[in-house]
Structure formats: C-alpha cells, structure tokens
Amino acid sequence: MEALGWWGVPLGVLGGAIRASTPFLFVSLGECLTEKSGRINLGLEGTLVMGAMSGYGISSLTGWPWLGVLVAGIAGMILGALHASVCSRPRVNDIAVGIALMLFGLGLAFYLGKPFIHPKAPRLPAIEFGWWSQSQQVRAALEVNVLFVVGAVLAPVLLWALNNTRWGLAIRAVGDNADAARAMGYPVNRVRLLSTLAGGFLAGIGGSFLSLYYPGSWNEALSSGQGLMAVALVIFARWDPVLCLFAALLFGGAGALGPALQSVGITWGYYLFNAAPYVLTLAIMIATSSTQRTLKGAPGELSVTK
User: Fold this and answer.
1) DSSP string, 181-250
2) I need a surface site. Which of 13, 135, 174, 260 has the fewest CB within 10 A?
C-alpha cells in the first residue's frame, strides 16, 4: 500500500476487514443460531481451532481444500453434539461446559495438528474484484474469498428463515420460553441439539478459512481468541444475523487498522492498534451491560438474561 500513499490506508482496512471478518462472520452466525435456541456455547474457540486444524490436515493430505472445509464443519458438528448432549442433562451449566469443551478442542487440535505445522496445504480460491487495476496492491486488497461471499449471503437467508419458517419459529420459541415451547409440543432438547450442531458446523467452517486462506497456514496461535470475541459480537448485533455481518466487518476492520497504518510508515503504535479488536470487545461488553434494562433481542432462556 506504500505506493498508494494515504489512499492505501482505507483500501487496506477495507480489504483487511473482508479477510479478517470471515471467521468472525461464520462463528457469530453459528453462535447466533445456538443462542436463539436458548443456549450459550463458549466452546466455539476450541471449535474454531479444531476446524482450522482438521480442514488444513485434510487439504494437505488430499489436495482438495473444499473437502477440508467440509471436514472442518463436521468436526465442529461433533464438538457441538458433545456440548448439546452434556448440556441436556439436568442441572448442567452450559457456560461451564463450553469452557471445558473450549480447552478440550484446543488441546485436541494442538495434539492432532503437530504433523501439519510444516507441510503446505492447497489454499481456497478467491474472487479478484480488483482485476481492473494495474496496481498489485489494489488487486490484493480487493481479492475476496468465496467463503466470505457465502457467509454474506447466508446472513440474510438465516434471518429470513428464523422469522418466516416453522423451523425458525421452533428455535425462537424454545429460546424464549422452554416451558411454553414444551407445552406447544416442541421437543426442546432436540431443537437445541440441532441448533448447536448447526452452530458448530458454521464455526468449524470459519476455522477452515484461517488455515486455508488467511493467514493460510496451521499453527497453534492461529485463532487469537476470535471464537470468544464472536460471543460479544452476537450480543453487539442483538442476535440478528444480518447485524452479525456488519459487526464482523467492524471487528475485521479494527484488526486490519494496524497493518494498514504500518504500510504508510506509522509503526509507533503498531502493537496498540493490533489490540483494537480486543479493546472493541471489552467496550461492547461494558456498553451492553446494565442492571436497569434487559438486552434487546436476547432470547429469554439465555443465562445472560437471568
């Protein structure tokens, strides 16, 4: 971006926002779906890393990155099924289970992923929206991965499904009042199981993006807490899938600010700017906490509303 001067900063933030927001987007959509059913899954950090490891491993072994994405989603479903099964037991706290599964997922991914730290796996393809430019920096900034496009389309589809389908009504009914939903004939545990499975699948896909496109390798420091930050993102988006898309772009843009400024020679606050997503997460949690009002849009069965 240095050749573009200061014009490279907004361009770099835009391109970085799209790249860095994709894991946030998929994890937040998965967590939004899970929380709509009345359950919090704090284990998505482990799911994200497990998806990154399994996707990279399968892509490295087979040479098919899209198969790696599918396997990453299945790995996320397995962890989601484990979370849902344990949480369906009486007097089990879903937050405590989520933390335990986060540590389990991280440890398992680190153990199984050691053989894949050095091998190079095929990467996911991207759409080059900057084909019209002669500048390599512009073309690189406007290179958009297919998974981001899929996530951007999935967000409004998910919102429509939650508001206009019988499946969406069942999820919202279970999430708002489990006893009333049970009286209406909805199988509460089954609805929450399927919602958590779908949420884990999406989180696993988000993890595959990290290892198969950006940054595009497998290592034990790959996630940087994005799975946990996605929980704050869902609260900030008020459990709205479309708002999750915009919030993910905001988080991604915050993470891209440091490298964009560094490209024009501003290096004195590089590490401070790299902390922007974490500062933003803390600010959101403080801004949304209140003993005087309830969280707008929050399902009634969530622990954060009780």
Assistant:
1) HHHTT--HHHHHHHHHHHHHHHHHHHHHHHHHTSS-S--TTSSTTHHHHHHHHHHHTTT-HHHHHHHHHH
2) 135
Average pLDDT for 277-306: 70
In the chain, the largest separation of any two C-alpha atoms, in whole Å, equals: 65
Q: Is this structure's pTM higher than 0.70?
A: yes
Token digits for 80?
């989601």
* Residue span of the structural domain in which 267 resides: 2-305
Phi then psi dihedrals of residue 43, to 5 deg: -85, 5
| Tens of pLDDT, residues 164-202 | 999 999 999 999 999 999 999 999 999 999 999 999 999
Query: Mean pLDDT throughout 108-129?
Result: 89
Number of domains composing the chain: 1
Residue 200 sits at the vertex; the CA angle it makes with 185 and 63, to the nearest 5 degrees, is 140
Contact at 8 Å (CB) between 188 and 181?
yes
The domain that contains 167 carries what CATH number? Answer: 1.10.3470
